[in-house]
């Protein structure tokens, strides 16, 4: 099976621009939708390129590139909201009625929101960190503060500091990774999205909105997630510390939690084999 970048990349024209994605696996196998996270230089391909070959052995895999991150065409609106609507737009266009989903960080939040609002589209859900509120740890976390510093005034040094906070083993922060992320992070669409999500001004505005709003936070609605859910977490996650898992673990009725030792925010990369084993078993039940 050829799961290289060029062999798997696809484009889908929609009424809101072109969605780009990667596809692998037997078309007759059950579908699996993989949703990426956020941060400088992120793409769905970079999040899941190491896992695609594994999951394509059992599923027809789709790695969607969210609008506004420099790959799919950007659309107006907040990135988390436009990401959720793009998933439904994508599934409708390809005739995918229902599918299990894997969501890394922001992608997990997108998956949770879809499971709450459109439960008929989410068969099972796997989240990778990022879901829920900080319970004991400071908010924003160390990793998010470093992300905010980079967003306000991007530089390679700030990018390296943020990348180093993403992992337990800093050997993973190679020159190749730094260069790849830097080139993607300075894309104008990606910079605009980052400012909306993590810039100091946007963060301050979000805090004021939350204080004045009667709308409950998404995590307080997690008792409405009806599908089986696997919460995966790195024990040494400095972006979304593992105490955050306590709330979704308690609120989601059919949730289980797997914490991986010596692992940071990128569980699917840093604990690759163990993550793939746990998720494969969960999806097969």
TrEMBL record:
Gene Ontology cellular-component terms listed: membrane
InterPro entries: AB_hydrolase_1, AB_hydrolase_fold, AB_hydrolase_sf
Statement: the UniProt record of this protein carries the keyword Transport: no
Alphabetized UniProt keyword annotations: Hydrolase
One of the protein's GO biological processes: acylglycerol catabolic process
EC number: 3.7.1.17
Molecular functions (GO terms): 4,5-9,10-diseco-3-hydroxy-5,9,17-trioxoandrosta-1(10),2-diene-4-oate hydrolase activity; monoacylglycerol lipase activity
Gene3D superfamilies: alpha/beta hydrolase
Domain AB hydrolase-1: start-end pairs: 30-271
PANTHER family per record: HYDROLASE, PUTATIVE (AFU_ORTHOLOGUE AFUA_2G14860)-RELATED (PTHR43798:SF33), MONOACYLGLYCEROL LIPASE (PTHR43798)
Protein name as it appears in the record: 4,5:9,10-diseco-3-hydroxy-5,9, 17-trioxoandrosta-1(10),2-diene-4-oate hydrolase
Lineage: Bacteria, Bacillati, Actinomycetota, Actinomycetes, Mycobacteriales
């Amino acid at each position: 099976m050829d799961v290289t970048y060029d062999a798997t990349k696809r484009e889908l024209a929609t009424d809101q621009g072109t969605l780009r994605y990667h596809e692998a696996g037997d078309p007759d196998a059950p579908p699996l939708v993989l949703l990426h996270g956020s941060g400088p230089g992120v793409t769905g391909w970079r999040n899941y390129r190491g896992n695609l070959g594994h999951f394509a052995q059992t599923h027809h895999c789709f790695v969607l590139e969210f609008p506004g991150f420099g790959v799919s065409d950007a659309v107006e609106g907040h990135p988390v909201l436009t990401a959720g609507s793009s998933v439904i737009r994508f599934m409708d266009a390809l005739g995918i009625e229902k599918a299990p989903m894997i969501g890394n960080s922001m992608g997990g939040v997108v998956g949770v929101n879809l499971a709450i609002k459109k439960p008929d589209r989410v068969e099972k859900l796997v989240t990778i960190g990022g879901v829920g509120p900080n319970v004991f740890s400071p908010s924003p976390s160390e990793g998010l503060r470093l992300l905010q510093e980079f967003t306000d005034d991007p530089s390679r040094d700030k990018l390296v500091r943020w990348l180093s906070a993403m992992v337990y083993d800093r050997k993973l922060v190679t020159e190749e990774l730094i260069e790849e992320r830097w080139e993607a992070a300075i894309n104008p669409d990606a910079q605009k999205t980052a400012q909306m999500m993590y810039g100091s001004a946007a963060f301050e505005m979000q805090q004021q909105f939350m204080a004045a709003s009667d709308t409950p936070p998404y995590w307080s609605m997690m008792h409405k997630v009806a599908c089986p859910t696997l919460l995966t977490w790195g024990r040494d996650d400095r972006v979304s510390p593992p105490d955050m898992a306590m709330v979704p673990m308690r609120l989601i009725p059919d949730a289980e939690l797997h914490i991986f030792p010596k692992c940071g925010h990128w569980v699917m990369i840093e604990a690759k084999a163990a993550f793939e084993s746990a998720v494969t078993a969960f999806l097969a039940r």
